[in-house]
Amino acid sequence: QQQVKQSPQSLIVQKGGISIINCAYENTAFDYFPWYQQFPGKGPALLIAIRPDVSEKKEGRFTISFNKSAKQFSLHIMDSQPGDSATYFCAASISGPSGSARQLTFGSGTQLTVLP
Amino acid sequence: DSGVTQTPKHLITATGQRVTLRCSPRSGDLSVYWYQQSLDQGLQFLIQYYNGEERAKGNILERFSAQQFPDLHSELNLSSLELGDSALYFCASSVGGVWGNENIQYFGAGTRLSVL
User: Which of A78, A103, B57, B99 is 20 to 30 A off residue B68, Cα-Cα?
Assistant: First the structure.
């Protein structure tokens, strides 16, 4: 199926702590897994993405862990800062040749609050 | 700034009316995607166009339609509006034509539609 399940719905973390958001998918045809960050009044912005041929990708304080056999992936935000407070969406899509890349299927979102 | 421009930012209209939302993709991007974001449904894919042609349809109502013009801008037409159509409508664009990069979707700031 096309669903992507995301948890938790909301998360409160102290400044400097680690924020962890989890997602699970069912469609094994998915081969691209991005995370988007959305601030109030703004559109989602790509944060980091991974393909299933690697188990982990790190960019600065953001890390995606990917478990292909379990069909799960997660976002870890190290040293969380108040400026990270936003809504985070995991997503999945299917790649393809020119012009055929499919739509993103989004998780339900996680409202992250980082306390100062 | 994602480079994707959506107009108008806000739209207030009455039930039964028709509105048009406009999207200008990033320079050079051939694919345009429309998404609807509501509190109860989250971010849902509506429709995708690639270089003027419809490529994929999601949960788009028959009252809604879209098109992509030769200059690659796109319009989403919503007719016979109902209260439940009130939502944020996002346009995203991706480059297309380059395997691996075309999954990266850049979102506009959205159009907030309020149906009264």
Answer: B99
The answer, yes or no, to whether residue A101 has pLDDT greater than 90, is no
DSSP per-residue letters across B35-74: EEEETTTEEEEEEEEETTEEEEE-S--TTEEEEE-TTS-E
How far, in Å, CA of A64 to CA of A114, rounded? Answer: 19
Exposure string of A33-63, with b = 16+ CB inside 10 Å and e = fewer, is bbbbbbeeeebbebbbbbebeeeebeeeebb
Best mutation site among B37, B103, B104 for testing chain A: the one with the most A CBs within 10 Å?
B103
**How many CB atoms within 10 Å of residue B36?**
24
CA-based nearest residue in chain B for residue A106: B43
The first and second tokens of residue B44, run together, are 């849902």
